[in-house]
Write a structure and sequence with these properties.
- By secondary structure, the protein is of the alpha/beta class.
- It contains 4 helices and 12 strands.
- A hairpin with a 2-residue loop joins β1 and β2.
- The chain has a 7-stranded antiparallel β-sheet. The chain has a 5-stranded parallel β-sheet with strand order 10-9-8-11-12, sandwiched between helices.
- The radius of gyration is 20 Å and the shape is globular.
- Bound molecules: flavin-adenine dinucleotide (FAD).
- Flavin-adenine dinucleotide binds next to β4, β6, α1 and β12.
């Protein structure tokens, strides 16, 4: 009997990302004083796929002086205005993709969103991987700041009816609150910002630390500022004994840093030092 020989060259071929899609703004809606929903459409969006809650897209914005972004090419310059956002809703029948932007006041994406108007064009890459809901779990703790609000909203909408979710969201004030829908039983509380100098999400951190529901939680999802998420992750692992597999933590932005890497899981190494997040995924190349 002959043995199967190992492949000569087992190195997998590099994963080929589809090129980013040209997307045209069709509607702009102010959801709260600090949150804008931009609805995109366009022929190329027809191939977009909804891959589940808490996924992400790479948004390529026009460079200074451009009316629309140039599709990236292997030989061309790398676009500089690339940022990570959450697909909030995709309606294939209407060919519409909603993205909810926080207007935090700095940075090209926040500034672009504050002036967005129908007819404007961006490029959209992705979607990247989503949050996998554990269908066997019943008790969830879900927390984040406003940048995670779109992800949290999609997760809550995807939870099964048997689930119970304790939800804590940090915002500036009551005007930032939006309705959240879910088949699950929700205990939602909005916490208002009380940051100390140089620190973000202190109110969220305190709310999570003091949460009685943590004692029974089977799954925890937290996304917020990168340093805050590390503090909370350490607390969950070291003081509350959570298994790393039952928590998902994501650094969505970092104080003082533009374009914080999108693959930031808020982890520490075995010596308790923060593991630097991977660099942002390069925008999909045009083929
Ligand atoms: C997977 C993922 C999904 C995300 N989904 C969303 C989403 O759906 N909606 C959304 O609004 N954001 C989302 N974010 C966060 C968003 O990518 C960042 O806030 C990003 O920095 C915004 O880009 P910018 O060009 O406005 O600012 P940047 O140029 O990146 O930063 C400029 C300055 O603004 C500061 N800054 C950035 N964000 C904030 C903030 N929220 N509050 C205060 N200061 C800030 C930075 O520290 C920096 O000093 C997501 C991030 C990730 C990783």
């Amino acid at each position: 009997m002959s043995e199967t020989k190992p492949a000569e060259n087992p190195t997998p071929a590099p994963r080929r990302r589809p090129p980013p899609r040209r997307a045209v703004v069709s509607r702009v809606e102010r959801l709260t004083p600090r949150m804008v929903r931009v609805t995109f459409t366009g022929e190329q969006l027809a191939s977009f796929t909804w891959n589940g809650p808490g996924a992400y897209i790479k948004l390529i914005l026009p460079e200074e002086g451009q009316s629309e972004p140039t599709p990236p090419s292997p030989d061309g310059p790398r676009p500089t205005r690339v940022r990570t956002y959450t697909p909030r809703r995709f309606d294939p029948a209407a060919n519409e993709l909603d993205v909810d932007f926080i207007l935090h006041g700095h940075g090209p994406a926040s500034q672009w969103a504050s002036q967005a108007a129908p007819g404007q064009v961006v490029l959209i890459g992705g979607p990247g991987p989503s949050y996998k809901i554990d269908e066997n779990a019943e008790r969830f703790v879900i927390a984040g700041d406003e940048t995670a609000l779109p992800a949290i909203a999609t997760i809550l909408e995807a939870l099964p009816a048997k689930a119970k979710a304790t939800v804590r969201i940090e915002v500036q004030d009551a005007s930032d609150e939006i309705p959240l829908q879910s088949a699950a039983s929700l205990d939602v509380a909005w916490v208002y910002r009380n940051d100390q100098p140089g620190l973000a999400n202190c109110a969220l951190e305190e709310a999570v630390r003091n949460l009685p529901a943590l004692a029974d939680a089977e799954r925890v999802y937290i996304a917020c500022e990168a340093k805050a998420v590390r503090r909370v992750r350490r607390f969950l692992l070291e003081e509350r004994g959570f298994a790393p597999t039952s928590i998902v933590t994501r650094g969505y932005w970092q104080i003082g840093e533009a374009n914080h890497p999108d693959h930031d899981y808020g982890s520490d190494d075995e010596n308790g030092r923060p593991i630097p997040p991977q660099r942002p995924t390069p925008p999909p190349s045009a083929s």
